[in-house]
Amino acid sequence: MKNNVIRLLSATALIAFAFMAAPTMQAADKAPALPMTATFEKVASTEKPPFVLKLKNDSKAALKVSAKVLLSVAAHNADKARMVPAEVVAPGATMKIADLAALDKVTVMADGFAPLELEVK
């Protein structure tokens, strides 16, 4: 009986420690925000979607950036996502992602930074 009580108390203490330590560990693992400024521009187009996303690198270092576009409108036989290949963006330079439609969702990624999630409006 005494051993069961000790085991129960040990298990309770272990679980309590895990719950108290988890938020601290998550806060330490959070990546910094991606240092890019995003702007959408509407362009004249008769055959392609009319929006372009411009991403300006605000950091002092070059960034290797890639993106994933979740299409708001897709053909039934096509992928609903479009991958934008990685591109090195120099400090102060701008990367463009064209052919975006209203309500497309864009996730911009770079190593060491939290993803930047945007929606075309």
Task: Summarize the biggest pleated sheet.
Answer: 4 strands, antiparallel
| CATH topology annotation of the largest domain | Immunoglobulin-like
Supply the number of helical segments.
Answer: 1
CATH fourth-tier homologous superfamily of the largest domain = Immunoglobulins
> For the record, what CATH class of the largest domain applies?
Mainly Beta
Q: How many strand units?
A: 7
Q: Beta-strand percentage?
A: 35-45%
Q: Total domains, how many?
A: 2
Q: Examine the secondary-structure arrangement and name the CATH architecture of the largest domain.
A: Sandwich
Biggest sheet: strands side by side, in what order?
Answer: 4-3-6-7
The helix-and-strand class reads alpha+beta
Q: In which range does the helix fraction lie? A: 10-25%
Order of helices and strands: HEEEEEEE
Distance separating the two termini:
65 Å
- The low-pLDDT segments are none
* Dominant shape: elongated
Tell me the Rg in angstroms: 22 Å
Structure notes:
The protein is an alpha+beta fold and 121 residues long. The protein folds into two domains: 1-30; 36-119, Immunoglobulins (Immunoglobulin-like), CATH 2.60.40. Helix content is 23%, strand content 40%. The chain contains one helix and seven strands; from the N terminus they run H-E-E-E-E-E-E-E. The protein has a four-stranded antiparallel sheet with strand order 4-3-6-7, with no helix packed on it. A three-stranded antiparallel sheet has the order 1-2-5, with no helix packed on it. It is elongated, with a radius of gyration of 22 Å. 15% of the residues are buried.
